[in-house]
Design brief:
Immunoglobulin-like; 46 strands; mainly beta; Jelly Rolls
Length: about 675
């Protein structure tokens, strides 16, 4: 796996340190601890309804603040900050993220201030009636502005029984500069398909002045096979606190299986430098996939046979799953509350409950995301999302022992990902409680090895195998002939589920092929070979090139393609071959994939090195290349602004730096960056 760096690490560290010490920030709270921050308090009603939750549903990083419906109250509840000195401050910006899981009705959320903790002045309020994820960014100018000891609160007003959960994170209070454009995010997905893409990014005007234009300097992989990015200016009217998304006309060429650092820096705003350059730069790591797979959404369901509201949810889910065979994977965790709880509760179910911050039943999660209700529309929306991992497994039973083999394959490098294996019983009747239900579906009986999953790393195009044998006599299993095994891959930090699949039941594992090779014979043919699986007898193979099915039910283990060879050979891009073994009864293995490189238009791998001297420099800097001509040298200051650009087209150049101010500069020489100290 290769990684490409286009800005000096020193610059990135400097930007990070400056961002953490922004002078105009009065409060920046991310709720990373397990308790309310020091000096914070709960006011009004609902003192026992606020929790710190180990989740990230609001859109920040775990942990986050949670308002839970129980104990229910009807009125106002406040989360109050420690006092803040607003001497000389006329107004502030208050921003936060939140996610509502609504039960019914409308609920009010607001921001207020107080100088005495008794009398509160509302600066903003809004009603919410639908579930969803939101970002608030509001100017607050109350009569408390200018005082030296001001409390801020975020308040909820309504009947808390009519919400399920409300999550909050990333509170920030700051004073607006006059001219300040913030680079909010780089919006190219962290896992993105190969090909061409412009830099997609979002900015927000957090200053007082309307922005009419700005210039951005992207950095990243080769741009359209034509070199590195130039600056690009956007003409757009962005009002104070408004956000906008943009895409550059220049584009990145992303090769499959690679990992890149994509970097962007705002160079100027309204023709000048804005007043806070520390929020002008972002870097994002992009992993380029080799292709995509059909996603099978993973449903995790917290329930109990002693829970009255669980009945209707169970009935709805039974209908939904019956209507969508093959479009879901499922694990249901029976909880030990309310009342005496479900007798099939296990400690492993408790671990998953704590992981998701689940504090009530029923609760549903789809691919790691909380769902108020899973409808056909919701299921279809997840099913239609691309997935970059594939999973196949099988199990058989010998007496009370279950034997499981599972392969987890990825089209992108996944480091320290968690592979989960849940042994469920399809239908149980022995855990009847007091809610009137007589049978329960997809009930988790055992997680192997445990409920925290199995940490694995997977190279792009390859797979990792897990094997288990477990005596189920110690579990609540009622019938060893009624089992299913749910398999899924999950990022344990973000909770994102990459893909899932039920294992093939009561059968042998479908083993994948071995030793796949692919190469060009000039531009006339693509030659592919592989060996049979280590166990099992496939009936045929499916062959994919660049994610397209080229041969179906192919029975040989050597393959040649002459139709695509010339175009792919001359494309200048890497290509991907994948072979899947097919078995009886429409069962398949995971695929095995390889990248094969075209022979023309691929840049020679011989490393070009540059000599840059003297360093430190006073009057001039000399640059020479060992085996190539230098085309362009760009010079950036510590703020990431380009201060000089020199066209060279030779293998040596001398640059006059006598007019540069003393300090640190970064010389970008044909995509490689060097730090230079100017005395």
């Amino acid at each position: 796996m290769r990684r490409f760096y286009f800005l000096a690490l020193t610059l990135l560290l400097s930007v990070t340190m400056f961002a953490q010490n922004r002078a105009t920030t009065l409060l920046n709270e991310t709720f990373d601890g397990n308790e309310l921050p020091s000096g914070w308090s709960i006011g009004g009603l609902g003192a026992e309804s606020w929790y710190m939750s180990p989740t990230n549903n609001a859109g920040g990083a775990a942990n986050e603040l949670l308002l839970y419906y129980y104990p229910s109250f009807d009125g106002i509840s406040r989360i109050v900050t420690a006092p803040i000195d607003l001497t000389g401050v006329e107004s502030v910006i208050f921003t936060f993220k939140h996610c509502l899981d609504n039960y019914s009705g409308e609920h009010k959320l607001g921001i207020a201030t107080s100088s005495d903790g008794i009398n509160w002045n509302t600066g903003w309020e809004q009603n919410y009636a639908t579930s969803g994820q939101f970002v608030v960014s509001e100017a607050i100018a109350t009569p408390d502005m200018g005082n030296s000891n001001v409390l801020f609160c975020m308040f909820y007003e309504g009947d808390s029984y009519n919400i399920n959960n409300w999550y909050f994170d990333d509170f920030e209070i700051f004073v607006q500069d006059n001219l300040d454009l913030q680079l909010v995010s780089i919006d190219i997905p962290s896992m993105t398909p190969a090909g061409e893409t412009g830099l997609i990014f979002t900015v927000q005007n957090i200053g007082k002045t309307t922005i009419e234009s700005f210039t951005i300097q992207p950095q990243g992989p080769t741009v359209g096979n034509c070199g590195t990015f130039n600056t690009e200016t956007f003409e757009a009217t962005i009002a104070p606190l408004e956000k906008m998304q943009f895409t550059t006309e220049q584009y990145f060429t992303l090769q499959p299986g690679e990992t890149y650092d994509i970097d962007a820096n705002i160079v100027d705003v309204n023709g000048t430098q804005d007043e806070d350059p520390t929020n002008d730069n972002l870097t994002k790591v992009i992993s380029v996939t080799m292709g995509e797979f059909q996603r099978i959404p993973m449903i995790e369901h917290f329930s109990s046979s002693t829970c009255g509201p669980c009945v209707s949810v169970n009935n709805n889910m039974n209908t939904l799953t019956a209507n969508n065979p093959g479009k879901f994977t499922y694990a249901k965790y029976q909880m030990n509350w309310p009342n005496s709880g479900d007798p099939y509760y296990t400690e492993e179910g408790g671990v998953r409950r704590d992981y998701y911050g689940c504090n009530a039943v029923p609760m549903l999660f789809m691919d790691g995301e909380s769902q108020g209700n899973i409808t056909q529309e919701v299921l279809d929306s997840y099913y239609n999302k691309p997935a970059f991992a594939d999973i196949r497994g099988a199990f058989n039973v010998e007496g009370n022992t279950i034997n499981i083999t599972a392969d987890f394959m990825s089209y992108v490098y996944m480091e320290n990902i968690r592979a989960f294996v849940s042994v469920n019983e399809k239908v149980t009747t022995g855990n009847v409680g007091n809610n009137g239900e007589t049978e329960f579906h997809h009930v988790m009986m055992k997680m192997l090895d445990n409920a925290e999953g199995n940490t694995i790393s997977i190279n792009a195009g390859e797979y990792q195998r897990l094997e288990f044998s477990f005596d189920m006599s110690s579990t609540n299993v009622e019938d060893m002939n009624d089992l299913e095994v749910a398999l899924w891959l999950q990022d344990y930090e973000t909770m994102e589920v990459m893909n899932s699949h039920f294992a093939y039941a009561y059968t042998e594992h479908c083993y994948p092929i071995q030793n796949l090779t692919a190469e060009f014979d000039g531009n006339s043919a693509i030659n592919v070979t592989w060996e049979a699986p280590e166990y099992g007898t496939p009936i045929a193979y499916n062959i994919y090139i660049n994610n397209e099915l080229i041969e179906e039910n192919y029975t040989e283990m050597t393959y040649q393609n002459t139709e695509l060879a010339n175009d792919l050979y001359n494309s200048g891009n890497d290509n991907v071959i994948m072979v899947v073994a097919l078995y009886e009864d429409e069962k398949t293995s995971v695929g095995v994939a390889k990248i094969f490189t075209s022979g023309v238009n691929i840049i020679e791998k011989a490393e070009t090195t540059f000599n840059v001297y003297p360093n430190p420099a006073k009057d001039f800097v000399k640059i020479s290349a060992n085996n190539n001509q230098i085309s362009t040298v760009r010079v950036y200051n510590m703020l990431g602004m380009m201060v000089d650009e020199i066209e060279v087209n030779s293998n040596e150049v001398e640059i006059n730096v006598s007019d540069y101010n003393s300090g640190i500069y970064f010389f970008n020489i044909d995509g490689k960056t060097y730090k230079i100290i100017r005395n």
